[in-house]
Amino acid sequence: MSQVVHDYGDVCQAVTELAVELDAPISTDDFRTLNRCLDDAIAGAVTEYGRERNQSGIDGEAARGSERLGFFAHELRNLMNTSIMVFEVLKTGNVGVAGSTGTVLYRSLMASHALITRSLAEVRLTQGVQHREQFLVAGFIEDIASASTLEAKARGLRLTVTPVEDGVAIEADRQVLAAVVGNLLQNAFKFTRPGTTVTLSVGASPERVLIEVQDECGGLPSGDVNELFRPFEQRSADRTGVGLGLAFSRWGAEANDGHIHARSLPGKGCVFTIDLPRLPVRAFEVVQA
Predict the structure, then answer these.
(1) Which of 86, 101, 126 is at the close of a domain?
(2) Which end of the chain, N or C, is surrounded by fewer C-beta atoms within 10 Å?
(3) What is the rounded distance in angstroms from the CA atom of residue 57 to the CA atom of residue 205?
């Protein structure tokens, strides 16, 4: 799988080097088209490989490791190629970093950061390394919203974060859970319609805490929306991944004694909900004391 990704990367490199040799600069739009074509090819190859591997009865953990490796390699390659291409354009001095070209670079770097953060969290899950701690949900959401607001603005979207009830606390691996919520936000930013709003909210009952991300993608076609959490599932025309982001979110939620589900709002959008056990108020107060 990694060899397939590497070979497609060589194709991209060969095309860009040939363009330089022929003094035929590739525009940013053309480069995006080239990467989209390569991503389609990689996604198709990796998806088919993963399905055949699973059907052949290979150990599930080994198959899951291949899924993560393929996703990470192909996504990081794409993001780095875009960043390098934009940097070359900026070096010419013909465009400014404050313009749309600089925005493309910023988005690529932010996406790279999110990808690496999520991949590190996956390693922790795979190795069974967890650092559970008790913390207030309000501060947790505030930290996530600070970085995600910049990402939303860069994409021409709005991120609305609703106030969180005081005293709501959970016990979880904060790094893994942050990667899960961040991934749901990235997914929402990717598929919501231009100029719309993504909403991050928290609801709480005496026993449960619900962290929800709602987009305005227009809703999903009829079918079981929870199939989206299966590895390699992709339901959008945007094929720039291999369909493992939501699968990771499911794994991360389950590792923190919770679960995740989705629902479609026809004509409006989708809502992804992380359902976690709430820490009793008295237990949290004792720890804080």
Answers:
(1) 126
(2) C
(3) 42
- Shared domain check, 151 and 52: no
Structure tokens at 117: 């953060």
32, amino acid identity: R
pTM over 0.85: no
Looking up residue 251, the CATH number of its domain turns out to be 3.30.565.10
CA 165 → CA 131, 136, 139, 182, 193, distances in Å?
Answer: 25, 10, 11, 21, 30
165 and 111 inside one domain: no
How far is the C-alpha of 272 from the C-alpha of 249, rounded, in Å? 10
Distance, CA of 101 to CA of 215 (rounded, Å) = 26
Q: Same domain for 180 and 83?
A: no
Instruction: Find tokens 């004391």 and name the residue.
Output: 289
Q: How many CB atoms lie within 10 A of CB 147?
A: 15
Same domain, 85 and 174: no
Interatomic CA distance for residues 242 and 245, integer angstroms: 8
Q: Is residue 222 domain-shared with residue 207, that is, in the same domain?
A: yes
DSSP 130: -
- Determine phi and psi for 157, rounding to 5 degrees: -120, 170
Boundary residue ending a domain (80, 108, 126):
126
Query: What pLDDT, on the 0 to 100 scale, is given for residue 110?
Result: 72
Whether residues 120 and 148 fall in one domain: no
Looking up tokens 């960043």 gives: 83
* Strand segments (E) across 6-143: 132-136
| Ramachandran angles phi, psi of 151, nearest 5° | -65, -45
Task: Look up the domain containing 108 and give its range.
Answer: 2-126
- Residues 190-239: pLDDT tens digits? 889 999 999 999 999 999 999 999 999 998 876 556 666 654 444 444 44
196 close to 141: Cβ distance less than 8 angstroms? no
CB 182 within 8 A of CB 118: yes
Tell whether 144 and 201 lie within a shared domain.
Answer: yes
d(CA 10, CA 38): 11
